[in-house]
């Protein structure tokens, strides 16, 4: 069953505004898929069409999505070209990809904060996956994280209901030199937060050993 609910759009803002909404293509060719991605991008940026429906947007999104996925894969492939020769410095492709990852993470947190159950479950899964990856890499190659860790009071860590489960937290904190350079950070925090809050942070820090 096709959806007919109309989407409220902002007043036309571009020279092409006010024109009839585009005809739906079947998305069978690469050109049509690119066109569908273009249409949903224009809808977001310009809101140029009156009478657009949820079904129209779904059509644009579903047939344009393959182009977006291939773009992300292309960025990842291009970013790997100089990984062996310049492992410490991100190239332009890697920076582009990381910017998208940040925005998607922010969108996931926003959706969860608004009470979206599926997004909240995905937030759980991704947080656990990322923390597991960090915990493994921090022991295998701690130098990757020392720049961040030395100036941080906290680190990601997996927790369990069982108090005896440590997730190697002490070993990881020692390996990455957690909070090794945080003296000035604590002084800055004291300017903005109550002492009791800083004391709670200090006790959490000391519990890592």
In short:
The protein has helices at 30-46, 54-79, 92-113, 117-140, 146-149, 169-175, 183-190, 195-206. It is mostly helical.
What does this structure look like?
The chain contains eight helices and no strands. With 209 residues, the chain is an all-alpha fold. The protein has a domain at 1-79. Helix 2 (54-79) crosses helix 3. The chain is elongated. Residues 1-5 and 9-16 have low confidence and may be disordered.
SSE blueprint:
Elements: H1 30-46, H2 54-79, H3 92-113, H4 117-140, H5 146-149, H6 169-175, H7 183-190, H8 195-206
Helix pairs in contact: 1-2, 2-3, 3-4
Strand-and-helix sequence, N→C?
A: HHHHHHHH
Helical amount: 55-70%
Number of strands: 0
- Biggest pleated-sheet summary: none
Radius of gyration: 24 Å
- The gross shape turns out to be elongated
Secondary structural class:
mainly alpha
Low-pLDDT runs: 1-5, 9-16
Roughly what fraction of the amino acids lie in strands? under 5%
User: Roughly how many Å apart are the termini?
Assistant: 61 Å
Average pLDDT level: 82
Number of distinct helices:
8
